Amino acid sequence: CFYQVKIWNLTKRQCIRTIQAHEGFVRGMCARFCGTSFFTVGDDKTIKQWKMESPEYGEEEEPIHTILGKTVYTGIDHHWKEPVFATCGHQVDIWDEQRTSPKCSLTWGFDSISSVKFNPIETYLLGSCASDRNIVLYDMRKSTPLKKVILNMRTNTLCWNPMEAFIFTAANEDYNLYTFDMRFLESPVMVHMDHVSAVLDVDYSPTGKEFVSASFDKSIRIFPVDKGHSREVYHTKRMQHVITVKWTSDNKYILCGSDEMNIRLWKANASEKLGVLAPREKAAMNYNQKLKEKFQFHPQIRRIAQHRHLPKSIYCQIKEQRIMREARRRKELNRRKHSKPGSVPFVPERKKHIVAVVK
Where does the Sof1-like protein domain start and stop, copy by copy (predicted)? Predict the structure, then answer.
């Protein structure tokens, strides 16, 4: 049984090409930096490179290259400037496009690695997430791991900020997202808390000011990088667990793929009008935006701006988690009150979830 890769025309909302790619699940996909081809990895232990353009009339749909590996690959990412790509599975392998064996293999610990991502600015840096709760950073030039941070729960994937070289955001099983500065891994720069189930994917906007997250709680949320709570939540009645999410390069749309086998296209700014705007329309929108910014701290304006309708399940879980957080806080206060001074230290929220940093 072959598992397919489909290529879509978004303007026409049509599938323009279907490729019988792998004998087993397709675990990862990435485009080459020039956009002329793309790579896929699957459960059949192969890495395949495909042309982005459809084959000519009479031509068969065949990969440009096929590399047969030794283990199952769970993810793939391409270098932003060179003909080099990285795969992950039992270890992180760095491949040259012209060779059928990896240039080097990187490992730190012994566990399955779920995702690997190249840094878009410092292109020789890459990060990976493993199922033993580690986030490991590597330097391609040295062929060695740099640092490792261990969290309380497993990190599913990470995404580098396209505008700030050292900043990355990790999507975690404990319902939170953590924005780290790779130079100071002892505590995250920001903890983003709004989801009520495991966060499965994250992707940055091309401006680097916001990112979008996909969760097991059947919703996607848009977070500003410097805020702990989301500015927007998207959901529909039919959408099930959201597995993957992508922010388009024109900063206008968000794509998500979910369990019920649908791809959805969302506006990055929900109230934005699509299509050509008349000059007066544009001026009115800018004026209204400035008014909102001017009066953003007025109680009624703030309530309207922040209010979002949520599905009943998410709404009830948020209430429940708020009660649980308050109970934990009260318990800690009581323990501190009835203990010797200094024996129960104050631990900031940012440091609570970090187990250790290994260099």
Answer: 268-354
